[in-house]
């Protein structure tokens, strides 16, 4: 029986509030590397930040928890998360 903490999951997050122009994407990349999570992050035209996190369950959950606060200059109002099937992403990047 596999260890639950090693289960691979994918979370698709939409973060709203004052999250653009405050280093949110840059900080997300740093946090993803810290937790060993793959995926991507980008700004949306409506002012939100969109991110996808893939990895072991504990790492992805740490990223979602971090999204609720973000970098010190951010003011996060909401984090909406949808769980999807992992696609086997490699690395973590900022998208446009």
From TrEMBL:
Transmembrane segments: none annotated. One of its GO terms (molecular function) is acylphosphatase activity. It comes from the Bacteria. This is acylphosphatase. Pfam families: Acylphosphatase (PF00708). SUPFAM superfamilies: Acylphosphatase/BLUF domain-like. Residues 10-96 form the Acylphosphatase-like domain. The lineage of its organism: Bacteria, Bacillati, Cyanobacteriota, Cyanophyceae, Coleofasciculales.
């Amino acid at each position: 029986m596999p260890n639950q903490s090693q289960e691979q999951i994918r979370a698709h997050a939409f973060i709203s509030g004052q999250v653009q122009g405050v280093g949110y994407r840059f900080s997300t990349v740093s946090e993803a590397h810290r937790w060993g999570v793959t995926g991507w992050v980008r700004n949306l035209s409506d002012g939100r930040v969109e991110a996808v996190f893939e990895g072991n369950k504990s790492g992805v959950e740490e990223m979602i928890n971090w999204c609720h606060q973000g970098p010190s200059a951010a003011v996060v109002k909401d984090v909406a998360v949808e769980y999807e099937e992992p696609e086997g992403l490699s690395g973590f990047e900022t998208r446009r």
